[in-house]
Structures are given as structure tokens and as C-alpha cells.
Write a structure and sequence with these properties.
There is one protein chain. The protein is 34% helix and 15% strand. By secondary structure, it is an alpha+beta fold. It has a five-stranded mixed sheet, with helices on both faces. The chain is globular and about 60 Å long. The model has no long low-confidence stretch (mean pLDDT 94).
Length: 185
Amino acid sequence: MTPSTSSAITLNINGEKYTLPVDHRTTLLDALREHLDLTGSKKGCDQGQCGACTVLLDGRRAVSCLQLAVAAEGRVITTIEGVADGEQLHPVQQAFLDLDGFQCGYCTPGQICSAIAVIEEHAAGWPSAATDDVRPEAGVPPLGAEEIRERMSGNLCRCGAYVSIVQAVAQAAEAAASQDKEAVA
């Protein structure tokens, strides 16, 4: 008997479950865009190099053009369509709007998803290649422009909105840190 090359999978996307038949070679990006009409994640290079298709898988960023849809089954997937809380924009989305962190907007969904993960990774103390002292006892380094540029380096903007993107990530990180301090107090 020849093994099947397709199957029905259930994906947990933005808090909703979707069951769909897919060829086993279908990428998560193609499942999102072509099967579920969730077109916020963009197809840029289709090689995992530009970051336009970045989504969050279990809270961690992933380029969906390199992730097979069948491998995402059972994981929590958040796309740009799911980061806002109803009509209330996510703080990263708001910062991108406030500081013009986009020009043509094509890369913006991937930039925003990546920035959300960057802020969480930094807050958790994860070092980057730009982190001066990676020893745990050194504590969390400041999230300055150099750290943000390094951490966001997997997301390209062909328009060159990098200065505003870095400012938007910094603003959103400051807002998140303020909220965390208020929650502790």
C-alpha cells in the first residue's frame, strides 16, 4: 500500500481551531494564506531569509515559509491577525503606528510578530550576539538600539524603515516593562 501524501490536520490559530486537508509538503505559510485566507503573513523570499512570513509558534518566532503545516499541528500559532485584543491594538502595533515603523507595509506583519517575541525573549534574559555579558549573574542587558537591531536582524525591510522600527520596538519594550512593574506592585 502506498503511503498517503496528504491528511487532515487541526491547527490552533489565534485561539481558534481549524481542520483542513493538506498535502504533507504544504508550508504553514501556504496553509495560512491559501487554505485559511489569513493573508497577513506575507510571502517574501519563500526561503526563510526575509522574515515577512514570521508568526509566533508557542510564543516563539518562526518563519512560516520553512515550517511544514503538519509539523505545526498541536502548537499554538499566532499570526498578525491574532495579536490585537479585539479593537485594542497590541502595544507593538501601536508603537509601529505612532512612530511610522513602516513604509510600504509589506514586511510589517512579520516585523511586528518578531518584535513581540524579541521583547519577550529580552525580558526573559535571553542574550543576543550583541549582548556584552552573557553570564546569568550579569542580569538582563538594556534593550538599546544595538540589541534591537541584532535581535530583529532576521526581518528585512526593503523600504529602509529601520530607524523607526528600532524606535517602535524600544517604545513597546518600555511600555511592556512599565506594565510588568505595575503588575508586580
